[in-house]
């Protein structure tokens, strides 16, 4: 899949795993992949830590919404803003978990995601698809001590 990837400077991506996963997608169709958060938009939005857009999604975004302030208004949070722009042209985040329900993208560090540092209430509010195991790739942020 020809794609564009956005990643924070403190994100880690296992490129071989990402490349292999992306072979499942047709680059001529719009895809918006990442870790889905629940608030702000009906279909959620992908964490700004790492998300991937197919070539078709980038093309539609640039041609139809990027310079249109009505469809793509300025918002403080880049990840929410991108999702709003994409939503305006009917491109939505999809479930990127594997066949066992494991997340492929993770927006928080290990303690927050898997050791219970995030409360059940916060998880319900924020996560579209609650993580249950370590991911294959994404923005798994390690603690440096």
UniProtKB/TrEMBL annotation:
Domain of life where this protein originates: Eukaryota
Topology class, membrane: Single-pass type II membrane protein
Gene3D superfamilies (UniProt xref): 3.90.550.50
GO-annotated molecular function: glycoprotein-N-acetylgalactosamine 3-beta-galactosyltransferase activity
Subcellular location: Membrane
Predominant subcellular localization, coarse grouping: membrane
Keywords: Membrane, Signal-anchor, Transmembrane, Transmembrane helix
Family annotation (InterPro entries): C1GALT1/C1GALT1_chp1
CC annotations in GO: membrane
Family of the protein in this entry: Belongs to the glycosyltransferase 31 family. Beta3-Gal-T subfamily.
Name used for this protein in its record: Glycoprotein-N-acetylgalactosamine 3-beta-galactosyltransferase 1
Species the sequence originates in: Panagrolaimus davidi
């Amino acid at each position: 899949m020809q794609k564009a990837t956005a990643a924070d400077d403190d994100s880690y991506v296992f490129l071989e795993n990402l490349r292999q996963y992306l072979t499942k997608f047709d680059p001529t169709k719009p895809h918006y992949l990442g870790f889905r958060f629940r608030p702000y938009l009906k279909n959620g939005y992908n964490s700004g830590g790492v998300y991937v857009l197919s070539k078709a999604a980038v093309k539609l975004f640039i041609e139809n919404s990027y310079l249109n302030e009505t469809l793509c208004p300025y918002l403080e949070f880049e990840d929410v803003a991108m999702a709003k722009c994409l939503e305006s042209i009917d491109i939505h985040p999809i479930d990127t978990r594997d066949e066992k329900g494991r997340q492929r993208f993770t927006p928080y560090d290990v303690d927050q995601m898997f050791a219970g540092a995030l409360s059940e209430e916060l998880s319900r509010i924020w996560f579209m698809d609650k993580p249950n195991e370590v991911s294959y790739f994404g923005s798994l942020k390690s603690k440096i001590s």
